[in-house]
Hints:
Blueprint: H1 4-20, H2 28-42, H3 52-59, H4 69-74, E1 90-91, H5 93-106, H6 111-126, H7 134-146, E2 157-161, E3 165-169, H8 175-193, E4 195-203, H9 210-217, E5 221-227, E6 248-252, E7 260-262, H10 271-280, E8 289-291, H11 300-308, E9 312-314, H12 326-341, E10 367-375, H13 382-398, H14 414-426, E11 429-430, H15 433-445, H16 449-452
Parallel strand pairs: 3-4
Antiparallel strand pairs: 1-11, 2-3, 4-10, 5-6, 5-10, 6-7, 8-9
Helix pairs in contact: 1-2, 3-11, 5-6, 6-8, 8-9, 10-11
Amino acid sequence: MTSTATTAELRTQLLDLLAENPGAHQTPEIRSAFASKLEEYSKADGVDGSDVLFSIGSAVFGLENVLPPAAKKAKITNGDAPTKKDELPILDFDYMKQFMKEVFLTYGVTPERAEICSDVLIEADKRGIDSHGLGRLKPIYCDRMDDGILFADRPIDVVSESDTTALIDGNLGLGLYIGPHCMQLAIDKAKKHGVGFVACRNSTHYGIAGYYATMATSQGCVGLTGTNARPSIAPTFGVEPMMGTNPLTWGIPTSDDFPFVIDCATSVNQRGKIEKYAREGVDTPRGAVIDDQGVERTDTEGILRDMVLGKCALTPLGGAGDKMGGYKGYGWAATVELLSTAFQSGPWGEDICGLDRATGKPKPMPLGHFFLAIDVEKLCPLDTFQKNAGEFLQALRDSRKAPTGPGRIWTAGEPENDARVERMGQGGMKVPVPLQKNMLALRDTRPGLKEKYEKFPFEE
């Protein structure tokens, strides 16, 4: 058996190899050394399959199936699965929601909370936000419960409370049920007193922020929410990752068939987008990433390598420097971080990176959130507010189009509504092959699921 110290040493050697050889993936000798060392590391005790070094091995070095034995076992193959997008199977939303609920139940999540968790995830898939729905079930929630860094059923404690405010402690439970609890509390307070604000500490990843904004709009309120996350954004004129991608999300009721919902990160890009560039073999747009020497990087593979080493950071909305207003995105990212930590006395930066740098093992990420609800009826009739908002938004959509553009102007929340209409019309969601494999892995490893889901529709 390999000792824990040896495991840590192997990881350090891999990081040193990357740090000392900037073009490692282009040098045969270094490439071979990295592949050999990664293979050795994969067999060491206590190695986590989600360690980003394995992603670097795959995306940058093109190494296939170099993973710890447990991760390889879970990576079930499905050779007959279609690979073309238009041939992907379509699964009914109710079926998918029930499957996700059943998975949460196997971890000990209570039925009521499992229903809420699965609703948050399936709503992302309905809105076309595929990165935050089924795609997050296994790697973000199940794997982290397996790793013991978030917990299936923890109490939600009230730390302090007034008529219009509350501070909540989630005790490292699933953010998917903590978030809805906090937003509903803010809405209930708003309905009684006009405004409700709830801050939360010791939570975990809470899914799409837009879910909470639309909880408010569906109950006649303006809604606002935000959350911090692992450090990835550098401050303007800085190079060190200090803030998360920190969404600042508003929901506003309108007379349209859908509310106005602006749900986006405060960075130009996210790591997942850069990984997508690597798969496509294209450069990262200039201004989206800056390295520790202040250079705006575009070499996608090098960026992925250096992000692991802490030598690259994402830039805030507006990009690096101040020429395109990067300080504005920086200010908004900092605002979200402050509202997610100051009320809560919560951690930030390296304390929520999710990884023990010495061992490469996962560690808890105690996140902070905040939720604001404003009851429209306390200020004016709801239908008046909705009419005013709807008329303005329609004017934006009707305004003169760019001759070189797509011929249409969207308002926030409209693309997600388009996706919902399309997906409801097609009878559900398409499930890509990697997510089929995740479903198979969960079914075949979680107690009782094999009996309930003997054969998935895409296995027929």
